[in-house]
Write a structure and sequence with these properties.
CATH superfamily of one domain: putative glycoside hydrolase family protein from bacillus halodurans
Oligomer: single chain
Radius of gyration: 27 Å
Shape: globular
CATH topology of one domain: Beta-galactosidase, Chain A, domain 5
Distance between the termini: 33 Å
Strand content: 15-25%
Number of strands: 39
Length: 825
């Protein structure tokens, strides 16, 4: 879109979005809208907005509106020493028990001696409450979240007046903006208050500001720990960070007066705009959170002062330009449906028995992209287990970064779905871990490089958790997160071709991780190498004597991750022209890693021994990593093991695996890579039918109910993208796993490795028109869709003749050119 046209469009957006017929349950503001006929009753039904740093859950209440607020750096605790010198003493004993004695149960017990402290917890910031007198009857209620604008909206009529509320979190201005209007002049009257689940106070500042300030706990035990005093406050400096949020009220044609209870009473206003800013005492993962209260207050004030210089229309337009600059990069059409006229919760219920609404899958795809935009921006913390949204002091699994699948899954869609900038907070986390993890490597293992384990918090905890022996080693002691995180650095390079990023950031971090694992690998007679202790994440096996065990050597996932890390480091060093001696070392080490094994059932073995599975339906499928997100096993490479992986997946699902959101999302990705379109589609449908709440939040079973966990919201869209486009074998494959339910459609803006943007249209189940927009010059191999009899290729409008060879064609792509490939059958 030309700049002038775009500016004209953005100027018209506030008007255009304000017009829709409230007399009918009708079209959403855009096709990418979640909408409802009633307010949210519980937190997990509310609608999320965010700018990466500041987040809110909007309930859409009538007599009382609640916005539950979060700030990405508000955590319990402070930097501390979580390392355990006894770990290095226990390591030789564990290795002897596993490799020599085959006493796996005893090894489990010794592993507990290697554990350290539990991690800290992400904290809720505050609640903004707006209360008004409720009339007897409310008509034409509508609550919505327009993904295209990033604006949550509530509209209802009562007493002959139509009330409208809009909420968005602006990344350009770093404030949350609320706008209240009414169809009649002077019709807005309500009270505004702030409170928090944390220890806090409120006060009026000046004529129009409400200030809430407090201090987070010095320590919070994880929610799964049974503790007498799980939440500990400490008045000492730095023992628990200070925080503040401020709401600034701007009233038109009315007045705002302070109340005796520490809030504002708005009376007879025609329009009300509230700006909200927040700040915390966080100064860095390696510094005490002892930022002065005055400094925190000034940070809030500075943001409000800057934002208040803009009109509401300017704030909204700047937000739209920023948000849509990311969101509108990708469009998806899986078919139209009349079901868009239904509220989202009703569509979801209908989908449970009638899967005709394929547009709901497209909405879910765009919702995942929206959530990443809202919870992960350059300079913010990365998306945690709940993105950026949490209302509990002891949230599920501390709302931390769980790096044995969940954190990584949060970013599976970042590159393929054209949100590369949103990937960068994860790189910041990795960089922090490389520093704390270097100390852990030295103290716990007397090794070089850096290492990280299963749980990470704001302070970049890198050691095993478990409170010195209370954690199950299968998760607490798992020491393989470093290579998995490094895979994201390498993927970012593959998708962007950014050699400066590779040289200055990715390769040093990858090399640091590599240095640890070169020390960690041990001899595996005759002549090989292995890892020990080794855990297949959160899974267990039965030892030959029938005992439940978790510790062994050389689990399949360990070998897959290390083969990938060693190979990527070798390739990176070649590209950069550095470390020739290291390259030779890596070639030798790669040759010494064990090959995978096929077990008694024809399955890809999960452990180096063909142990009997203790939990055949385990939700983790770690041994399938080399299929996805890795790419070592494909239909073209190591086919025997690729086929064995299919057997493993079938057995896992038959035993009840894939039952939870993120696990089912992983299944979608695996079926897509296994080129089984119908099973991938079936799993995508099941994700919505069994692991999705009314507001499309991903769900995870917990006790007798369920909790919100955001990873499935990201993994599901990544799987859908993988069904439409694959690029992991240096070849572009269009519609590799297209199901029969999508006979016709289109997608634009997906990204492929090699820094290529791809638009794709299909009909009759086959690709018909493809547009490639390369950012870099390169030679690109392209798989010709089956059934194709004629191919026409143009380069920026001029015909070109590609090289053809055995079902594929090769194009010499030029940076900035546009290539169109037309396929006919």
């Amino acid at each position: 879109m030309p700049k002038q046209t775009r500016r004209k469009f953005l100027a018209q957006v506030p008007v255009a979005l304000a017009v829709f017929d409230r007399r009918q349950e009708a079209p959403p503001s855009s096709e990418w809208t979640l909408w409802y006929k009633q307010p949210a009753k519980i937190w997990t039904d509310a609608l999320p907005v965010g700018n990466g740093r500041l987040g809110a859950m909007v309930f859409g209440g009538i007599s009382e509106e609640r916005l539950q607020l979060n700030a990405d750096t508000l955590w319990s605790g402070h930097p501390r020493d979580w390392n355990n010198p006894r770990a290095s003493e226990a390591l030789p004993e564990v290795r002897r028990l596993v490799l020599e004695d085959k006493n796996y149960k005893a090894a489990d017990s010794v592993c507990r001696r290697m554990q350290g402290l539990y991690n800290e917890s992400y904290q809720p910031l505050a609640n903004l409450h707006l209360k008004r007198e409720r009339e007897a009857e409310v008509n034409e209620y509508r609550r919505e979240l327009d993904l295209d604008t990033g604006i949550s909206r509530v509209v209802f009529s009562t007493g002959g007046v139509t009330y409208t509320r809009e909420v968005f979190c602006s990344a350009p201005d770093d404030v949350m903006v609320l706008r209240f209007s009414a169809s009649q002049k002077n019709a807005l009257s309500f009270t505004l208050t702030l409170d928090s689940a944390l220890r806090s106070n409120t006060e009026i500042v000046g004529k129009n500001q409400l200030r809430l300030y407090g201090k987070a706990p010095a320590h919070v035990e994880p929610n799964y720990v049974n503790a007498k005093d799980p939440v500990l406050y400490d008045d000492a400096e730095g023992k628990g960070m200070r925080f503040e949020c401020r709401a600034q009220v701007h009233v038109k044609s009315g007045r705002a007066e302070a109340t005796g209870s520490g809030g504002f009473q708005i009376n007879a206003a025609s329009e009300v705009t509230i700006l909200l800013a927040a700040a915390t005492g966080y100064r860095g993962f390696d510094q005490m959170p002892d930022r002065a209260a005055e400094e925190i207050a000034q940070a809030c004030q500075d943001r409000l002062t800057a934002a208040a210089k803009k009109t509401y229309a300017q704030l909204r337009a700047d937000h739209l330009q920023d948000h849509q600059g990311l969101f509108r990069r990708v469009s998806l059409d899986l078919g139209k449906t009349n079901d868009t006229a239904l509220p989202t919760d009703e569509r979801l219920k209908k989908f449970a028995t009638d899967e005709a609404d394929q547009h709901l899958l497209a909405l879910y795809f765009q919702y995942g992209r929206y959530l990443l935009i809202a919870s992960s921006r350059p300079g913010s913390q990365p998306a945690n287990l709940q993105g950026i949204w949490n209302d509990l002091i002891r949230p599920p699994w501390s709302s931390n970064w769980t790096v044995n699948i969940n954190t990584q899954m949060n970013y599976w869609l970042a590159e393929t779905c054209n949100l590369s900038e949103c990937h960068t907070p994860l790189f910041d986390l990795i960089e922090g871990l490389s520093k704390t993890g270097a100390k852990t490597a030295e103290v716990n293992y007397q090794a070089h490089g850096w290492v990280s384990h299963h749980n990470v918090d704001l302070w970049r905890q890198s050691a095993p958790v478990g409170d010195f022996g209370k954690g199950d080693p299968t998760w607490a002691n798992w020491q393989m997160s470093g290579p998995w995180l490094c895979a994201h650095l390498w993927e970012h390079y593959l998708f962007t071709g950014d050699e400066r990023f590779l040289r200055e950031r990715a390769y040093p971090l990858m090399k640091g991780s590599l240095e640890f694992y070169l020390d960690w690998l041990i001899a595996n007679p005759p002549g090989g190498l292995t890892t020990c202790p080794s855990f297949s994440t959160e899974n267990s096996f039965l030892s030959p004597d029938g005992q439940h065990c978790v510790t062994s050597a050389g689990c399949t996932m360990d070998i897959a991750l290390l083969r990938e890390l060693l190979g990527n480091c070798e390739t990176a060093a070649k590209i950069l022209g550095v470390d020739e001696a290291l390259q030779e070392t890596l070639r030798g080490k790669l040759a010494m890693l064990p090959e995978y094994k096929v077990g008694r059932f024809g399955q890809l073995q999960e452990w180096s021994e063909d142990f009997e599975e203790d939990t055949p339906g385990q939700r983790h499928m770690s041994h399938l990593y080399p299929v996805y997100p890795g790419a070592e096993l494909t239909s073209q490479k190591k086919v025997k093991f690729w086929n064995a992986a299919r057997v493993s997946l079938e057995r896992r699902l038959a035993a009840g695996g894939g039952y939870t959101g993120w696990s089912r999302a992983w299944v979608i990705c695996l079926w897509a890579r296994l080129l089984d379109a119908e099973r991938a589609h079936e799993s995508l449908c099941r994700l919505l039918q069994h692991s999705t709440g009314p507001n499309l939040f991903d769900t995870h079973p917990a006790g007798d109910g369920w909790i919100f966990q955001i990873d499935g919201n990201f993994g599901g869209p990544a799987g859908l993208a993988e069904m439409l486009l694959q690029s992991h074998e240096d070849i572009l494959r269009f519609l590799p796993s297209l199901p029969k339910a999508w006979p016709k459609g289109s997608v634009s803006g997906l990204r492929a490795r090699g820094a290529i943007e791809v638009d794709l249209a299909w009909s009759g189940g086959s690709a018909t028109l493809v547009t490639l927009k390369p950012l870099l010059a390169r030679q690109q191999k392209i798989a010709v869709p089956s059934g194709t009899s004629k191919i026409m290729v143009t380069e920026s409008g001029e015909p070109v003749s590609p090289t053809m060879d055995d079902g594929s064609l090769t194009l010499n792509l030029k940076a900035g050119a546009i290539y169109r490939l037309q396929f006919t059958g």
